[in-house]
## 1
Amino acid sequence: MFAANQVQARTERSSKSADTHLQWMRTHRQLLIWLGLIAAFTLLLWFTVLAALDRPIQRAEISGKFTQVSKLQIEQVLEPFAHRGFISIDLAAVKKSIEQIPWIEYARVERAWPDGLRVMVTEQTAIARWGEKGLLNGRGELFLPEARDVPKDLPLLEGPEGASGQVAKLYLDTYARLLAIGLRISHVALDERGAWVLNLSNGVEVRLGSQDISARLERFITAANVVVTRAGEVRYVDMRYSNGFSIGWGGAHAGSSAAQNEGSDDHV
């Protein structure tokens, strides 16, 4: 009997709640209708404005300093995006497509009111060759493994597969310091055993070996005045000593002489 009374009480409360809700809706029916109309009008207005603004792309303004890439190449990449909506076009996708062009380092893409795109590109700058056909940029990245035309005046860097970043780092860390004392690097080689050799543009070979490369470079730079002042007589400088180096002379001074040598540690 008690349980039946509880069920009846709950039913009466539910009925009263439903009646209250219906009464509130009847009282505020006009307000709800107005709110619905306003929402529908706002949504319609939004889609109307969007449709008006999202007119098809008709033009592209392309700018940049072009030496390796032509505007025509960029226009061809943009063709699949022609007539996309001004608002709905995916600018990130356009940017990514342009940056797939091998010589493009960076692209900035913006909307140009009312129906165009503004594209600004920056080309890669090749600072060295990698092997026979590769090109490295200023960050030491191999941005073009198979270049059609490789500038022969660029320094040549060589090494085992996958070592381009390591070789480029040594070149970039050393190039400016040697240039400051009148020496220019023309070739950097890392062999399979981990031994380094630098060739200078004046024909001098610098043998660094495979150990303590940073320390040996420092010693070479400190003693490089010999190479600067007598470059025509020096064939090579061998830095593969624990504390010193040896010089291989050419011409009338053919042979070698040592300076501060205290034993060779990784001659091969």
## 2
Amino acid sequence: MAAALALIICSLLVGATLVVQSATARARLMLVTLVAAPLILLIHVVSADRLATLRDRPAVAAATLVIGALALAALVILFTRKPAAFPIAVVLAVPFRIPIAVGDSTASLLLGLYLVVAAGALAWLLPRLRSGASEEGLRPGALEWVIAAVLVIYSLQSTYGLGSAPALENVVFFYVPFALLFVLIARSRWTEKLAGRTLAVLVGLALALTAVGFFEFATRQIFLNPKVIASNQFTDYFRVNSVFFDPNIFGRFLVVAIVLLVAWICWEKGNRRVALGALAAAILFGGLLITLSQSSFVALLAGLAVIAALRWSVRWTVVVVVVALLVGVAAAAGSGALSGGRSLERATSGRAALVTGGGELFAQRPLQGWGAGSFARQYRRSNDVSFERAASASHTIPVTVAAEQGVVGLVAYLALLVLAFMRALGGARRAPWPQMQVGVAAAFTAVVVHTLIYAAFLEDPITWILLGVATALAAARTQEHGESSTP
């Protein structure tokens, strides 16, 4: 119960950081959150046997802390002197996850990104604490209030059910640091030059990671994830994941890079730059193909459809999408009939059963759900399956939310989606640089579609980054054109 109370307090702190108007108050809340979240995590894992190595080797632990502190100080100095370096550092850190033993499990954590976020937060809050700034121009809108509500509701719903530990780890590892990341990205001063540099870094990084994927495909050697390694040995196909733990997450990263690059190409007038951009997009698409991530292919099509609608014609884009969907449904129905109805489960790699099971859990407890973070354990208990077959989520975010949080959580999730799309799509064509706003809106759409087929919505930093950029662009457009405040 003490852990649940601490988790609720932490969510309230980061929620208040999102919605408070005073810059000084936000700086204070951010500082307290930076201290509270690691402290809660430390209390959570302090008695775990997996920490025995650090307890038995204090010199290693001390050296790690010293190196981390020095790196943090260096980044704080860099971001204080050159604030534009923060978004670029975030992009560079996003792909790299480090396996860390936490409690009874091993989690692949974005330690580099956590360091960058902590440094960015300190670089932002320290001057405001010294100056005592009272107000700032960027006013929180309905989206910030709903995000705060989603985090608090999630923490409250972790107090019952079987998922208190997973819920705590989700909040501390993902929601809290990424909410701070959203605040910092939204308050970064975005210019066309910074946007171009950030896109160039993203595409360059994506090309480098794609090269790693090509190497894996050529040598038939996977660097991470024993499950992918085992799967490749017993199937006719070969999937790559580059430095990512999961081929689907690698695919999502490539989709975001491709969509943002295509949006830039659609407004670029220089033939040589368009040709180079098209070549880069083709290479990235080649990397996407060898991930064999079905969810990423669908997400890419969704992102490109948004670009086509906003750049040329909404009507004809809708016509093409409807025709494509009808053809796809007909093909899937025909394939299912030919295989005796067994193709759906095989094609979705068992996800259809998870979705069905999640729906059954929701039907059993529709109002409040089974508790935040409880899907895997409750699914395993209700269906009498092994731990390996019970994923941490249904691979369809609305179903996971419905099963864990019931109607209460589902309404909050849908409200978040509606306001997020309003923020991302609002005034895209009238933006000072439409290629950036349209690209962000299309990339966010692709991510949401990906989460409907796979997983990890608020657990993915890319979601928060895109919303943060969309918020910064909306605020800049409001100031320049006198539009109404952001939703």
